[in-house]
Amino acid sequence: MNRATKLAAGSVVVSLGVLGLKALAWWLTGSVALLADALESIVNVAAAGAALVAVRLAATPPDANHPYGHAKAEYISAVLEGVLIVLAAVLILNESWHAWQAPSAPALPVQGLAISVVATAINGAWAALLFREGRKLRSPALLADARHLLADVVTSGGVVVGVGAVALTGILWLDPLLAGLTAVNILFSGWGLLRDSVGGLMDEAVEPGLLGRIRSLVSQEAQGAIEAHDLRTRHAGSTTFVEFHLVVPGEMRVAEAHDICDRIEAALKAELGSAVITIHVEPEGKAKHQGVLVL
């Protein structure tokens, strides 16, 4: 079991534990805000399960039907998580609206809040771990799970404030109001996750900063060539795909051109980590006098 799969499995365990704590907090208090928080945790469990399946599938080696691997399974999982986040927000808004129409004071607020704070702290710590490891492993599924948990932390923070304010002031409508406001925040989080994940499925180019670094490395390492053009990039999970045409002098031997390609590939893989580099070598008559000029 690789590191990403272990983390995804850990998310399932953590989500189940947090769900139990939040359900207990709601049962003790009867607060609609804590009920909404527990509802979102049910979605967290489903999302963590989807991430686990996606990470395991993404780690499957390429085969005859999927010669480029299975890494895009992580983007599908991330899209599902975005949908689930939006669904959780809609459920919370619905519960908030009903509670707004008939607000009530929570019972045992201190005990309920204490349990909710513990659950929120667990989620926050696990989200921080997933963000760090997800960036290191370049795993869309783990990063999506981290964003989902972070949205849950924000929700829980609003819920704790709301229930605490109701207990201290007796203003009953604060409970559903803050639950509704945190639901709106979750909607924005879900939308951002959906946008990023769909971009991965649509083969968006790498971010401008990384693209500039790739162009610079090609220019520095292609001594002996003339230019590189038609540079294209994309991500698929933790793997970066780079392809371009490399123009060399017409009299250059195949072995010399191959050496240049090897040098460029080595530099790009050192920079990118997991990468697939495709270089099409062309004679100087194919030069377009644009793209990446060789230093």
Explain the overall architecture.
The protein has 295 residues and is an alpha+beta fold. The protein has two domains: 3-201, Up-down Bundle (Alpha-lytic protease prodomain-like), CATH 1.20.1510.10; 208-293, Alpha-Beta Plaits (2-Layer Sandwich). Helices cover 69% and strands 11% of the residues. The chain contains eight helices and four strands; from the N terminus they run αααααααββαββ. It has helices at residues 3-29, 32-58, 73-101, 109-137, 140-169, 174-201, 208-221, 254-272, and strands at 227-236, 239-248, 275-283, 292-293. Strands 3-2-1-4 form a four-stranded mixed beta sheet, with helices on one face. Strand 2, helix 8 (254-272) and strand 3 (275-283) form a beta-alpha-beta unit. Helix 3 (73-101) runs antiparallel to helix 6. The radius of gyration is 25 Å and the shape is elongated. The two termini are 44 Å apart. 44% of the residues are buried. The model has no long low-confidence stretch (mean pLDDT 84). It comes from Teichococcus deserti. This is Cation-efflux pump.
Brief rundown of the structure:
The chain is 69% helix and 11% strand. It contains eight helices and four strands. Strand 1 and strand 2 form a beta hairpin.
Quick tags:
4 strands, Alpha-lytic protease prodomain-like, alpha+beta, 8 helices, Cation_efflux_CTD, Cation_efflux_TM, transmembrane, Alpha-Beta Plaits, transmembrane helix, 295 residues
How do the strands and helices of this protein lay out in sequence?
Elements: H1 3-29, H2 32-58, H3 73-101, H4 109-137, H5 140-169, H6 174-201, H7 208-221, E1 227-236, E2 239-248, H8 254-272, E3 275-283, E4 292-293
Parallel strand pairs: 2-3
Antiparallel strand pairs: 1-2, 1-4
